[in-house]
Each structure stands twice: as C-alpha cells, then as structure tokens.
Amino acid sequence: MTLIPAVMPAWPRVHTDLPGPRSRGILDRKDAVLQGPLRDAENVPFVLGRKHGHLLEDVDGNVFADHVSAWGAAPYGAQPPHVREAVTSAWDRYGMEISQYLASEPVVTLAERLVALAPRGITRAAPTVTGTEAVEGAVKLAREATGRPIILSFLGQYHGESTYLTASVSTDMPGNTSGIAQYVPGVVLIPYPQSFRAPFHDGPGPHDDTMVLDYLRDWVLRYQVEPSQIAGVLIEPVAGEAGVLTPSQAFWDGLAGMCRRYGWKLLLDEVQTGLGRCGTVFAAERWGLEPDLLLVGKGVTGGGQAVAGVLGTEEMMADSTTHLGGTYAWEPAACAGAIAGLDLLADGSVLANTRELERIAFEEFLPLVAEVDQVGDARAIGAWACLEFVTGRGSIEPAPEFQHAVHLAAMRRGVFAISEASKSLYRLQPALTMEPELFRWSCGQIADAVREVARA
Asked: Minimal CA–CA distance to 382: which of 271, 245, 294, 280?
C-alpha cells in the first residue's frame, strides 16, 4: 500500500516530476489490466491518493486545486459532512434495496423536492442511476407521448457514451460516434448555437447564434425531415464538453416557438448544468425555459452515491408505461445523500458563491483574449469556465497542442482541470463551494501557464 503523510497540505504544491515515481508504477499496473487507456498518463500524469475539500493529492504527495470535481458529481467538495452523514445513516437503516419494487420514504421525498425546484409544469420524476440512462429514458418518453420517430439534437453536445443512442448524439469528439452512429436511426443533428464560430462563416464572431434556427427551418425541415415526424428536441442548455457554450435568449425564444408550433417536446439535458452549476438551481431559469422533460444527474447526488433521473410533466409521465431505472436506481442511501445536497442549496449561499466564481473567471480570463494571440475566446457561466485556443489572432483553427501544453504547465503549478488532447478547449469545473481566493489563484496560475506556452 502506498503511504502518504497523515496531514494533507492546505495549499497546492507540486514537488516531483509528473508522473511521480509512485504514480508511474500504478499507471503501469493500470495499463496492464484495465480496458484501454481511460485517461492516458500523458494527459493525467498522476494517481489520486486522497481528496479533501477542494484539493486533491496524488500518491507522490503533490497537491492540486481540483477543477474537475469528479466531472461535476462532487459539487460541494470532496466529503461534504452533511451528505456523508445522510448517506451513512440511511445505509444503516435501509441497506441496499430495489426502490422501484419496495418503496422507502427517501425515494418519495427526493422526487417531491426535485419537482418543487423544477421549472413550471414539471410534476413527476422517473428514477435512473446515470445521466446516460436518463437520456435514453427521455427519448423513450418523447416517442411514446407523440408517436413520432425522430429526435432532433445538436452537434458538439455530450449526452453519455455507454449506449448506442447516447454515443450517437455525443458528437463533441468524432471518436464517440465512430462505428456507432450508423446503427442508430431516428436522429437528426444540426449545429449547436454559439457566437464564436458559425457554420458557413469564416473567422471568429461574434456571430448571431439564431442562424442555426434559420438553417433548421429553411434546410433541414424542407429537405430532410418533416416537422410532424419530430418527437422532441434533445439539447443541453449549456454545452459543457463543447466548450461552455451559452446560447442567447433569442435562440431559446426561437426554439421554444418552433416547439410550440410543431408539437415538439423539449428534452432539456441538465445532467451537467443542473443543481447550481450555472448559478441557478437549473440552467433553465436563466432563460425562462419550461421543458417537457428535464434530465438530472451528477450534481444531484450532492457528492454521495449515484443518482440521476428524468423530471417531466403530467402529459409526459402520468399515464406512461415506459420503464426507466433498474435494480440500483434511487436506492435509499443515495436518495438520502441527494436530499442532503438539496439542503445545501436551500439558503442561496452556494448559488451566490457560484456567481462570484463566474465573475472572477471573466475578470481573470477575458484580458487574455486581447493579450495572447492563441486565446480565441474566454467563456464562463456559474462555476464553469473555458479557454478556447486557436492557431493565431483572427483564426478559428483549433490549437489542441497549445491547449495540451497549457494543461501540463498548469498542473506543474498545482491546478488540475479538464483537458482532452484532441480538443482546443481547456475547461474549469470546480466545486460550487470552492473558495473565491483559491479560484482566483488558480485562474492566475492558468493565465501564467498560457503566457509561458505562448512565449515558447
């Protein structure tokens, strides 16, 4: 067993090469027994030793500010005491149970609490274990309710990878859909709205993101699929994996109008954006959206056990015979942890902190767009930020090598965020409760890393 000091340092520090010797040994063992490189050692060159608060320490004693937060599934830091206590207490009381066969009170309470927080019209909940299953369930429900076959979705989004359907609509990287999409009928994709880059346009924006609705109306609905064949629109209110893209109010107003006109159901995937990530309980609140189905996951766990699900209207769920969930969906201890997480959102202080992180991100990163030629755009919403790198000023040509170099330079400074080697996007996804001082320090370290790579 690898030994690390009993007391975890209170601030990031890196004192070995990455990976350190102990990490390198475990990574070699991993490569020998696990399926493929889940995250290659060059991109994540260390092995987790332990976490505390908003810091993580590797097995060599290097400490990093955690801007991944378990891909958003640890929204209140590593071990939120209120959530841990709730999970442990419920486990001691109920043990493991299949909640869709034998009900317990935490299951009902969680459904009631989520429905009460959801946008107007949402009245019911369907349990699942993962966000991927929630996406599958929402598509089933939309097709059942409308009797229509087609799902309209958007290029660049991420909806999961572990099933054929979700992989086919997770187009943030071509590798997700390769060898998959051709086996999945009934999906039509158009560009996700954004202002930095736009279809049929050269050079960076700002562009009017409603042009994708013009393309939908004038081309897709005219030449590819009739409106009456579309059951629902599957969309993330903010496309995180595509680079924290935030559509305009004009886009949302236009899309909602088309849904009303053609009878399309709005399937809002808030697995990543929901439960405070965007500075409101649900991102839908920022644009006044009223979805027919709203998908939850990741942050709804409170950092406890796995919980996800679909929230829906009476029309979509009251008489539905579609089965969602399974053996492990909403087991009692997981529900108790999720309820405890909702308690932490209740007084507004977490949401206020999230909005402060957004303000700091803009303050620290926007100057880089003018200062460094390779910084094409800087974006933030709530506890989410992204730097998009390009080959030079005035270009929209992606610069994944530059991004990866920034990622490695930031890790050497003690900041661990989200980098995928094939992308030009460097993303921060800290806990909603990260201290503003630690977040500002992290942004400063990243900015210095950008300057270092630009000089090199």
From this structure: 280
